[in-house]
Design goal:
This protein is an all-alpha fold. Helices cover 57% and strands 0% of the residues. It is flat, with a radius of gyration of 18 Å.
Length: 92
Amino acid sequence: MPNPKLRAVGPDERRAVESVSDAVDYGSRLDELVQMRRVVARAIDTTASARDLAALTKRLTEISKEIDVLRREDEEVSSDGEVSTSFDAKVI
């Protein structure tokens, strides 16, 4: 029998995501990517290695592109829940 005290949490009631592990445990894929981007950005700010800087910068760019794609997908969902199937070459 379902617990009558349990209910779905609204978007404004979600727990704040403050780390990558929080995002994995409580957030969405978008939350995970945003937190990963913060970690990589901090690593870029503190690295002294040119080799590491190149790899971190590349990964930061990749994560940012993934975030943009997910945010565009969220925006394309219309109010009635239908997903736009239009092709946008800029996303690729």
